[in-house]
Amino acid sequence: MPELPEVETVVRTLNQLVSGKRIEKVSVHLPRIIQRPSEPEQFSQVLAGRSIASIERRGKFIRFILNDLVMVSHLRMEGRYGLYSRDEPVEKHTHVIFHFDDGTELRYKDVRQFGTMHLFNPGEEWQLPPLHKLGLEPLDPAFTLDAFRAQLRGRSTKIKPLLLNQQRIAGIGNIYADEALFRAGIHPERTAGSLTRQEAASLHTAIVGTLQEAVHAGGSSIKSYVNGQGEMGMFQQRLNVYGRNNQPCPRCTQEIVKIVLGGRGTHYCSRCQPAKRSRKRIQQN
Fold first, then answer.
1. CB 134 within 8 A of CB 167
2. What is the pLDDT along the chain (285 residues), one digit of tens a residue?
3. What number of CA atoms fall less than 13 Å from residue 16's CA on the CB side?
4. Same-domain pairing of 31 and 99
C-alpha cells in the first residue's frame, strides 16, 4: 500500500499535471470504487463541468479540491492515477476516467480494486469518514516531540502497531515504521509507554527524517508503485531493514530478523534494536 511518501509524490505530480483542468465528464467502470454518493451516475453528473483547483494530501488520502467540492481518494493496495490523451488505448483495470475538455484524461487504474472515492462539500470531509479520525501529520509543524509523546504516554500497545495506527499518526505504514524504529534503535515489540524521553525524541527525529528523505526520493517502489507520470520511487535503494530479512545489518552485520507483529511482517536488527532498554544509547546512522 502506498504510504505517506508515495502519496505525497503522487499529489505533487498530479498538481503539475491536472491542476486547472476542467472535467467534461466522468466514466465509472467499477461502481464500488465510488463510496459517496452511493450512485456512480450521481458522482459523474455532479463532477461534470467542474475544475480541479489543487490537490492535497492528508495521511495516505488524496484530496482533489474542485470549485465547490472536495473529492477524497484512497489508493489502497495498488491504485494509481495517470494522465493520458483520449486517443490512447485504455488499459485493463482502468475503473474511473475523468475526461477533461482539453482532450486529456485522468485515469484511475486499480488491479486489486480496493481503492475508494468520496465526494463532499468543502469542509464536510473533516467531519465524516474516511478523514474524520485521522491522527497527527508527521510532516506537519504540529507534530512536535510533546505531541508525539502524548500518543505514547501510558500505553501498553507495542510501538510498531502504534506507529501503524492511523488514528494516532497518519501516513506511516509498514516500510517506514520498520525503518524509523531501526534508525532510533528501538525494538518493534517495546511497549509505547516504556520509551524514555530520549528514546521518544530519537524515534520522533527518525520518523520525520525517514519520511522527508523518502519524499525527496519519490517514495519506495517495492511492488507496483509509480507516480502520476509512471516514474518509480528510489528510496527502496536506501532501506536498512525492510525486506532485508536474513541479510546483514548495514550497521553491525548481524542478520536482519523478520517476525509477524500485529499481522504485519516486521524487520529489525536484534543487536541494534535490543528487546530491553539499553543504558547505552545506540547511535543513529
1. yes
2. 789 999 999 999 999 999 999 999 999 999 999 999 999 999 999 999 999 999 999 999 999 999 899 999 999 988 999 999 999 999 999 999 999 999 999 999 999 999 999 999 999 999 999 999 999 999 999 999 999 999 999 999 999 999 999 999 999 999 999 999 999 999 999 999 999 999 999 999 999 999 999 998 888 755 554 445 555 556 888 899 999 999 999 999 999 999 999 999 999 999 999 997 654 443 443
3. 9
4. yes
pTM of the predicted model as reported, rounded to 2 decimal places: 0.91
Residue 274 maps to a domain: no
Catalytic residues: 2-3, 60, 264
CA 22/CA 100 separation, integer angstroms: 5
Whether 149 and 264 share a structural domain: yes
Q: How many domains does the chain have?
A: 2
Domain that holds residue 151: 145-268
From the list 75, 68, 43, the residue with the least C-alpha distance to 173 is 75
**Helix (H), strand (E) at residue 71:** strand 70-74
In whole angstroms, what is the distance from residue 88 CA to residue 70 CA? 28
Sign of the torsion formed by the C-alpha atoms of 32, 36, 41 and 45: negative
Query: Does residue 195 share a domain with residue 80?
Result: no
Q: Which residue in the block uniquely carries the three cell numbers 469542509?
A: 123
Residue 202 Cα to chain centre, angstroms: 22
The CATH number covering residue 55 comes to 3.20.190.10
> For residue 276, is it within any domain?
no
- 77 and 162 in a single domain? The answer is no
